[in-house]
Every structure is written in structure tokens, then in C-alpha cells.
Specification:
The complex is a heterodimer of chains A (115) and B (111). Chain A is mainly beta and 115 residues long. Chain A has no helices and ten strands. Chain A has strands at residues 5-7, 10-13, 19-24, 31-37, 43-50, 65-69, 75-79, 88-95, 105-106, 110-114. With 111 residues, chain B is mostly beta strands. Helices cover 0% and strands 59% of the residues of chain B. In chain B, strands 2, 4, 5, 9, 10 and 11 form a six-stranded mixed beta sheet that branches. Chain B has a five-stranded antiparallel beta sheet with strand order 1-3-8-7-6, with no helix packed on it. Classes of the chains: A mainly beta (115), B mainly beta (111).
Chain lengths: 115, 111
């Protein structure tokens, strides 16, 4: 596609439920990131995928969070047993490494609200 | 922990004035980038400056980088109401694989 696509754009769920957030990166981009942004805050790194390498999961806040990237393209971020503190905007970004630098292209995010 | 840290956090200016915001970081970097975010959703890349560059221009944007002080500044000249947004710096370096973002500057341009 023309840009990074995230779905759903908004998700309201009840505490304790599981949610899945989807990201479609720009075609051909080998790197994919998930970030979380709480209201009025900066971006908190969650996880990074680069090609076929093992993902960098060092930013995942707890074992309730997991992510996968199938076929080097679409990624799904799963949050199990959601808590109210999980409410935030979840942003996905992709990039094509260019001479060792990275310019990220972001999706519009998923606004997650846990009631 | 966040590498980038912008200062000041919030800035309100009149249309036509210049807006300057700063970013400091703690470790060595390969490059530093600035992004803009409107309405709390997706970020848009504005400009990238490499560690061996000191100044870069793009339209009404001017970025400086001082690696000795581990700081960068973003200047928006002749601001417009459409420049109202949050601006984030992000650093690439420090031995990990990701961009580290600062907390952002909220800029409000009053028409």
C-alpha cells in the first residue's frame, strides 16, 4: 500500500479481555516497530522486527504483551488480560534501512481504551 | 530510557514568528531526526541530520547538531497556524536497534 496501515483505528475493550492490533507496513520495508504513547507523553518503544532476525522484544512491559510478524510483512500486537493502564495509542512504523540510517513511516495508530 | 529530551515542553507563538525547540541526548549517535505529530496520532518525519553534519535546512526548517554538547535544535521560521503540533526528536545509536524518542514539544501557533 501507499503507507503504513493500522487496524482498528479505535478499540474499546473490557478489563481482562484480550485484544489484537494489526499493522500493514509499507511493501518492501524490512524493519517494523511498535511504540506505545500514553496521553500527552512521548513514545515508548515496545518491539522491533528486522528481516529474518530475532525480534528485539526488550520494550515489552510484561508477558501479557506479545507480537509476531508473519512472512516479513503484516504484524500483530496481542495484549492478553488487558488492564486499564494499557489504555494508550499504539503506533506502528516501518522503514527501509538506507545506508545504516532509518527514517520511520508511521501509521495513524490504534487508540486502545480499556474500561 | 529515552535518549532524546526536548526543551521547552510547550511553546505558544504568534503566526509569523520563529519557533525554536531543543533536544539533548546522552549517548553517541549515528543520526538525529525530528518528527511532527498532529492530534496525537501518526508521526511524520521532518528532517534527519547525521552525526558528521552540523546544520541542515529543509524549507522553513533549520536543524543544528552539536555532538560535543549532545544537543540539537529545530527552528521553524515564519510559523503558520498549520505548524501547530507536537515535535519530537529521535536518536539512532547507543548500540541498540531502535530510534529513541523524546517526550515532545507542544507548539501552538496563534493566527
Amino acid at each position: 500500500g501507499a503507507g503504513v496501515s493500522q487496524s482498528p483505528s479505535n478499540k474499546v475493550t473490557e478489563k481482562g479481555k484480550d485484544v489484537e492490533l494489526r499493522c500493514d507496513p509499507i511493501s518492501g520495508h524490512t524493519a517494523l516497530y511498535w511504540y506505545r504513547q500514553s496521553l500527552g507523553q512521548g513514545l515508548e518503544f515496545l518491539i522491533y522486527f528486522q528481516g529474518n532476525s530475532a525480534p528485539d522484544k526488550s520494550g515489552l512491559p510484561s508477558d501479557r504483551f506479545s507480537a509476531e510478524r508473519t512472512g516479513g510483512s503484516v504484524s500483530t500486537l496481542t495484549i492478553q488480560r488487558t488492564q486499564q493502564e494499557d489504555s494508550a495509542v499504539y503506533l506502528c512504523a516501518s522503514s527501509a534501512r538506507d545506508r545504516g540510517t532509518e527514517k520511520l513511516f508511521f501509521g495513524s495508530g490504534t487508540q486502545l481504551s480499556v474500561l | 530510557s529515552q535518549q532524546g529530551e526536548e526543551d521547552p515542553q510547550a511553546l505558544s507563538i504568534q503566526e509569523g514568528e520563529n519557533a525554536t525547540m531543543n533536544c539533548s541526548y546522552k549517548t553517541s549517535i549515528n543520526n538525529l531526526q525530528w518528527y511532527r505529530q498532529n492530534s496525537g496520532r501518526g508521526l511524520v518525519h521532518l528532517i534527519l541530520i547525521r552525526s558528521n553534519e552540523r546544520e541542515k535546512h529543509s524549507g522553513r526548517l533549520r536543524v543544528t547538531l552539536d555532538t560535543s554538547k549532545k544537543s540539537s535544535s529545530l527552528l521553524i521560521t515564519a510559523s503558520r497556524a498549520a505548524d501547530t503540533a507536537s515535535y519530537f526528536c529521535a536518536t539512532d545509536g547507543g548500540g541498540n536497534n531502535r530510534l529513541a524518542f523524546g517526550k515532545g514539544n507542544q507548539v501552538v501557533v496563534i493566527p
